[in-house]
Amino acid sequence: MRLLLTLSILCFSLFDTAAQGTLPPLDKSPMDMSYYPYNFPLLKIQGKTTEPAIARVIYSRPQKNGRATFGGLIEYGKVWRLGANEATEIEFYKDVKINNSKVKKGRYTLYCIPAADKWTMIINKETDAWGSFGYDPKKDLLRVDIPVQKQNEITEEFVMAFEKTATGAMLIIAWDDVKLTLPLSF
């Protein structure tokens, strides 16, 4: 009985210590998620969906904070995780086409190689990666060059969102004075 009481006290004290542990600090680059169609989960629970979910992108949102981003913080000619922290993931809920290449339904990592005039967008089969440190070009499914569009207004926080088009959607990527659109057809 004494042993049982001692074990019980030990278990409760360990639980109490774990419960009082400190939480990790808030990340400076919060994670975000965009769906096509826009706001799909909310529309779904409200019974207002007019089309099924086609794609979702999960990414972390770095801030400009007065820094020189492209050609500075983000080096030209080097693989970038397309955000901060974990590598950006894109999931397709059905087969899509990017630049006339078929991409099967599934979850992928989205990388890019930025340059001043174009970015090479990369769909890679490896998932659950942090940054681009373990990037393996042998696992690339698709590479496509996208022209850089200059914006007059500065976008302070990195953002990715889908916009409907006549043939599917565009994945819009914007940060600082740069905007790109990756066309998806389905």
Characterise the protein shown here.
- This protein has one domain (28-185).
- Helix content is 13%, strand content 44%.
- The chain has helices spanning 2-19, 40-45; strands at 31-36, 55-60, 89-92, 96-98, 101-103, 106-114, 118-124, 140-147, 149-165, 168-185.
- A 6-stranded antiparallel beta sheet has the order 1-2-3-6-7-8, with no helix packed on it. The chain has a two-stranded antiparallel ribbon with strand order 4-5. The protein has a two-stranded antiparallel sheet with strand order 9-10.
- Strand 6 and strand 7 (118-124) form a beta hairpin.
- The longest helix has 18 residues, at 2-19.
Question: What's a quick, concise take on this entry?
Answer:
The protein is mostly beta strands and 186 residues long. Helices cover 13% and strands 44% of the residues. Mean pLDDT is 91; it is low at 3-15.
